[in-house]
Amino acid sequence: MLRSLVASKTGKTAVVALVAVLARGGCASPDRPPRRAAPAPTTTLVALSPVAPITVLPTTTTPATLPPVTTHAPVPTTAAPVVTATTTAPTAAPTTAPTSTVPLTVPPTVAPTVPPTVAPTTTTVAPPMVAGNGRPFGASSPWNTPTPASTTWFDAVRLHTMPIAVNGDTFQHWWVNTSSVGIYYAKATDPVWTFNMPAYIAPLWNRNRPAQTFQVHAPANMVDGGDEDHILVLIDGTRYYEVWNAQVDPVTRTVTNRASGPGWATGDFVNGPGAGTMATNDGVRAANFSWAAGLITGRDVAAGKIDHALVVALPHSMLKAGGTPDYVWPATAWDNGGAQGPIKMGSRLGIPAGTPRPAGLSPLGNQMFDALVTYGAFVGDYCGGPWPMFYVDKFTVTEAQMRPLFTWWDYGGSSDMEKLGPLLRVANYQP
Question: Which pTM was predicted?
Answer without folding.
Answer: 0.73
